[in-house]
Amino acid sequence: MAGISIEALLGRFKGCMLGALAGDCLGAPFEMDSSVALSVLNNYINKLADPKVRVPYKAFTDDTAMTQSVAQSLIDEKSFSEVDMAKKFVRAYYKEPRRGYGANIVNVFAALKATNFKDVWAPAALQFDGSGSYGNGGAMRVAPVALFTAAASTEEAINMARDSALITHSHAQGYNGAILQCLAVRNALLSPSSSLNPQEYVEGLISTLSKMRNPREEDQDLCSEGEGHGGFVDSLHVLQELLGRSDQVTREEVVERLGNDVSAINSVPTAIYAFLRALQPIQGIESDSEFLRSIVYAISLGGDTDTIASMAGAIAGAYHGSQGVPEFLGRHCEAWEGALQQAEELHKIVYKNDKP
Ligand code: R7I
Ligand code: MG
Ligand code: MG
């Protein structure tokens, strides 16, 4: 385990679940803004940090609702069960449909319900005339899979990330985005504190993706040049180049080259960049918490702010641990205690060896 104690990993599990939640809650009010001024975000955070300020809590969105379902399914089943996970997604959606779900995923929920979960893979495969969704919904909810498979092989983590995404996202970019986000969380989680070298971290992701055995032909999309921003490996090369000259890189350039929209290909690499960029001070962002900086920076890029901030937060939290998460966030984010509890339960399953 590269020298990280099981106790320290509990802090990392908590940080990861809290980061996913905080990014969603803090980012949601800005979703689809073209970009957000850093002065606005500094004021926003300062206000939340002020103990005298009483504001309504920040509600979570579909990102968290689905992350909760993934975590709870793994906790209840102590393994991956596509039927249980699909049922939990559908139950959460029909209980609270107004959480800002993607426009098309709701058709999957309706079809799963109408067919009584007979073939859980089928509705997702029918999306978009059979090409499947390339949205970032599979990636945004995958963090608990990275935690659950922390002590397992990389291959197991990859397979579970893919399967958890396939319940709703059968386009190669949809589930490959989930795989990349899972690996990003996993590698941050398992990196000893203060030892992470950003270039090596990205190199590790590239190497794992490039070596991945592809059971499906479409997975080649991961490694080959594709349309738009290209495959995920291409984006990771761009990310390395941006990291190499961080100080001169504008937020506009990050958006132009990595993207900030609801597709997985244009948001997962962006979230990874936000995490890595925030390891250093960023001109214009006041917070000296590296964890919070990653979320603020992700939001400042605009576009799919809740999701990119949630994915960046999950990675940052997995690396910095709960001690890196400013306490005041707990006063403002809905479902804070629930995220902590799920982190504890996942940790218990993974490290107390109480699998059935
Ligand atoms: O991926 P998904 O769960 O959406 C997640 C996003 C996050 O930003 C959440 O915060 C929430 O706001 O939604 O839901 P989907 O409906 O599967 O995909 C999201 C959107 O991506 C779709 O509504 C489409 O606009 C677009 N999209 C596609 N468009 C054309 N062709 C996804 N796949 C396709 C496609 O194949
Ligand atoms: Mg959302
Ligand atoms: Mg979103």
TrEMBL record:
Q: Organism's domain of life?
A: Eukaryota
- This protein's record includes keyword ATP-binding: no
Catalytic activity, per the record?
A: alpha-NAD(+) + H2O = ADP-D-ribose + nicotinamide + H(+)
The subcellular location is: Chromosome; Cytoplasm; Mitochondrion matrix; Nucleus
Q: Name one GO biological process term.
A: peptidyl-serine ADP-deribosylation
Instruction: List the GO terms this entry assigns under cellular component, sorted alphabetically.
Output: chromosome; mitochondrial matrix; nucleus
* Entry annotated with the keyword DNA repair: yes
Which EC number(s) are documented for this chain? 3.2.1.143
* Assigned keywords, A-Z: Chromosome, Cytoplasm, DNA damage, DNA repair, Hydrolase, Magnesium, Metal-binding, Mitochondrion, Nucleus
Cofactor stoichiometry and binding remark: Binds 2 magnesium ions per subunit.
Q: Which GO terms describe its molecular function?
A: metal ion binding; poly(ADP-ribose) glycohydrolase activity
Q: Which family does it belong to?
A: Belongs to the ADP-ribosylglycohydrolase family.
The protein's name: ADP-ribosylhydrolase ARH3
